[in-house]
Amino acid sequence: MRPNGDNFHLSPHVGLSHVGFDHLRTQLVDLVEPLNDQQLLSLADGIHELLRQRRALRQHHVERLRHRLNEDPDFDI
Question: Where on the tree of life does the source sit, at the highest rank (predicted)?
Answer without folding.
Answer: Bacteria
